[in-house]
Write a structure and sequence with these properties.
- By secondary structure, the protein is of the alpha+beta class.
- The strands form ten sheets. An eight-stranded mixed sheet has the order 36-37-39-38-40-41-42-43, with helices on both faces. Strands 13, 14, 15, 18 and 19 form a five-stranded antiparallel sheet that branches.
- α8 links the parallel β40 and β41.
- The termini are far apart.
Amino acid sequence: MQKKFPLYLILTGFLTLTYAQKKKIELKEIWNGTFRTEQMQVLRSMKNGKQYTILNFDRFSQTSSLDKYDYATLEKVETLVESSSEVPFFTSYTFSDDESKILLATEVEPIFRRSTLGIYYVYDLSSKGIIQISQEKIQEPQLSPDGSKVAYVKENNLYIFNVSSKSTEQITEDGSSGTIINGVTDWVYEEEFAFVRAFEWNSNGTKIAFLQFDETNVPHFSMDVYGQDLYPYQYEFKYPKAGEENAKVSLHMLDVASGNISNVDLGEAYYIPRIKWMNNPNYLSVQTINRRQNHLKLHQVNAKDNSATILLEEKDEAYVDIHDNLTFLDDDSFIWTSEKDGFNHIYLHNKNGKLKNQITTGAWEVTDYYGYDEANDRIYYQSVENGSINRDIYSISSSGKKKKRLSVKEGTNSGAFSADFTYYINTFSNAKTPYEFTLHKANDGKKIKGIKDNSNLSSELDKYELVEKEFSTIQINGNDLNMWMLKPKDFDPSKKYPLLLYQYSGPGSQQVANRWMGSNDYWHQMLAGEDIIVACVDGRGTGFKGRDFKKSTYLNLVKYETEDQIAVAKELSKLPYIDEDKTGIWGWSFGGHMSTNSLLKGNDVFEMAIAVAPVTSWRFYDTIYTERFLRTPQENPDGYDNESPFNYPELLQGDYLLVHGSGDDNVHLQNTMRMAEALIQADKQFDWAIYPDRNHGIYGGNTRNHLYQKMTDFVIEKLRDRPEKPNKLLKEPIKG
């Protein structure tokens, strides 16, 4: 006789079975695109403010199209250009100012982090004709405002291509590898001032201002490249390490019609991190800053006679940040952001540089500046007014009145505005919600309609065991620090769990933010599925909590940041569900330096650490970044050496995994080799891995999967499955 069960038991069993069928994240899924989010690729507003363009391309099928959409309806109006037998597969595009021509990039290959080489074409929207600019790969081409010419750099020299005649004129002759660079930046400017193109057309196409770098006396750096050939070879480039000589940079003015090049005297201009033409085609703005980076000058250069006057100066006891929040209005008065009152805010200056008024104010930071609608006197910006882990979009008048919050959902909101500020597309996400794209009216923020919402990804993620990221604050060393924590799915507060801290900790950075997941978040979710608590705390020196908090680490980089992470681990270990004898920390780059220092200086707190591509001595890192926070080694030797972990390898007590790519042009392998040698001579055992020819990102092929499998195994073996200590009193105290 068949036994019958009550319905409620059947339902309970079904629900239990359904829950049990939830999948755990597998490493391969993090890297194979399973959790890829849909984006709006390369969206730009047309000048009329009524339409926008989106580049749609597929690398697998090698197809691409540039499509125009209507803001009001979100419907596609037309395809402007698409790959075909005549038009090669392209992966980026730029309009001329008059929108008559489009610059298309093909066969693009990276040089360093931002610089690339590629084959470029000019597409004429009227004739539908396409012209290749050069048979050889070139850098940073830019159309003249009317689309009649293209300026570009090839082999360190500046060229101009005439579209109608298909002729090319070489503008500079002195460029050569390792000595003179015209029109593009050297390695350290690219990395630390975050730009590559170092030339700009004025608004009527009669002048080009460009920078020249003389890196003759900058020391060489070389890396072995192992490749697939019988013999490896050395890759060499100029890299100025802290305290060493930088390239000499100078500003030059090209008169396009005559071809004459003149020099611009800017006085004592050690660095020139920005140039930007004003609305008047005869006036160029130039930012210069001293080597200590604590005295910035904004110059106005008259292109008729190259005379320069100072519009504005910024000084700081620590350093002045470089930004792109400079907008010239119709009369060449300008909007500028500064943290001179202790928080980053928006200021309005007249055309002579005199301050008219401070537009935003408060104990919060402006995090992005979107632009100014002069017709309606509305400035649009993003800020952390709703808490430093959130981002919202606001509008405000130039007088600082009539402020309005436009975004409504709590999390991270950013805006892409139409050229006439009628519309904006809001990109929203938070820790629970993948990216949503919605269309809004700019005047009041009213939502018009949705565009994309990644609902397919949300449905897919419902099949997995994911846990909520819990946000909170923790009081450490007199500061309320932002924190998130991931607890295992079946968290039991009566149990003891291992703790793994993740952090980056670099100046002005932020890891504790209410936004959608990245690759590391999925890995942390995977570790939470292995009964490990993962937490992250942004300590002193991180961003978006004011000038004093960010710059508190000045001259002592990594010292206070390390103290905070050690104190965090101690404080969290007091929780009844944290196993104080199973505490680990990991990080990448600056975070790798931090995890190394925390393991050594906190050897009574941490049992294990993973350091990926770590700095181990700031003496090995570049001038611009390092000297901004530490000054030179000659001025501040203790600031460099007291926090260099290979100076105290004897402090290592726990398990340590050290990882680096041999082709890292940013944080050189030298850092890991010196650390390894110090540990070897101190007779300290450790684990390590070198990834051949991989750069600072350590990716390509199966590399990321291999790296994260190694880290996963290390965390499981050395942290979760670490044998219990028979007597906690046997835990060795910190030495020194």
